[in-house]
Amino acid sequence: MVFHDVARALTSSLDLDTILRSIMQQMELFFQPETWSLLIVDEARNDLFYAVAVGHAESELRDMRIPMSEGFAGWVADTGETLIVPEASLDPRATSLPENRISFQVRSALCLPIRSRMRTIGVLQLFNCRFETLTPYTVSFLHVLCDFAAIAIENAKSVQRIQELTITDDCTGIYNVRHLYSQLEAELARSRRFNVPFSLIFIDLDHFKLINDEYGHLAGSRLLAEFAQALKLTVRRVDIVFRYGGDEFMVLLPETTKEEAREAAIRLYSEMRDKSFDIGVGSTVKIKSSYGVATFPEDGAFIHELIRTADSMLYMVKETSRDGVAVAGEGITHASPSFLVR
């Protein structure tokens, strides 16, 4: 019956938190820990985070991250071995337990690795459980639950990867135009609800065709990818960068006034203009670009109006100076020095 319930949990939802909680409820029936948690390995950061935490310290634990090898969970993640600690005060690893920072007394611990494809992807951690329930059968049962948890985690990651592929541009690795419209719908609704502005910066690379003609299309694709990643690193953390199509990009700036958007566009213009990009053929190039800025609500009450306004500002630059910034209602506000001298 237990395994039937677990199998049903795996197929009833794609939400990882829901699935893991369903699986671990079965574990609680056997061991009745004061608190338990399931941590997932973040391979990029080489640490663990609390995917699920239940018990006295739930709210505090969910914000913590555990370095590999630190504490019980870090040791299990690093070694891939099960850890049974009947008396935590006698174990030197207990001194680095994050739970110690939140006034939770760890008297005993049971930690099991969650493994998939010969690597540890998570750790199941039980504190202060009924150790008289630990028998070969119940420990085997926990290992089976860990196997189910591994399936749930891997399935969730697969679904996440598929979702990311549908909203990610293959060439540049940034969000695509499909996701742009989805995000704009959400931002428009939020801005209307809270009566706050947001802005768009439309960007087009100047004379991009010359790169393709001189170095080839592979080099051109490499330049687009390098430019996109440089944009992501240059904008604020709250801003979102999209590839609109071809050599055009869009930056969504939430809660940003026209004045703030103008300053952001000029900063992007200046920083991107000065960068050298590796195009993968033993050469680096600099690329100039044109920028158009529009702000909700004054430059458009609807998404297509706002994009059309930003696009018209972009082409104002393209048809005059190139290599500059135009803002709706203001015209060209920043351009290359050679244009300004004329």
Brief overview:
This protein has 342 residues and is α+β, with helices and mostly antiparallel strands. The protein has helices at 2-12, 16-31, 58-61, 71-79, 136-167, 177-194, 208-215, 217-234, 258-274, 303-318, 337-341, and strands at residues 35-42, 47-55, 65-67, 83-85, 109-116, 119-127, 198-205, 240-245, 248-254, 277-278, 284-285, 289-296, 324-327, 331-335.
Write the layout of secondary structure elements.
Blueprint: H1 2-12, H2 16-31, E1 35-42, E2 47-55, H3 58-61, E3 65-67, H4 71-79, E4 83-85, E5 109-116, E6 119-127, H5 136-167, H6 177-194, E7 198-205, H7 208-215, H8 217-234, E8 240-245, E9 248-254, H9 258-274, E10 277-278, E11 284-285, E12 289-296, H10 303-318, E13 324-327, E14 331-335, H11 337-341
The number of distinct helices, counting runs of at least 4 residues, comes to: 11
Q: Could you list the spans in which at least 5 consecutive residues all have pLDDT below 50? A: none
State the major sheet.
Answer: 6 strands, antiparallel
Find the count of extended strands (DSSP E, 2+ residues): 14
The SSE string, one letter per element, is HHEEHEHEEEHHEHHEEHEEEHEEH
Describe what this molecule looks like in 3D:
With 342 residues, the protein is of the alpha+beta class. 45% of the residues lie in helices and 24% in strands. It has 11 helices and 14 strands. The strands form 3 sheets. The chain has a 6-stranded antiparallel beta sheet with strand order 3-2-1-6-5-4. A 6-stranded mixed beta sheet has the order 8-9-7-12-13-14, sandwiched between helices. The mean pLDDT is 86.
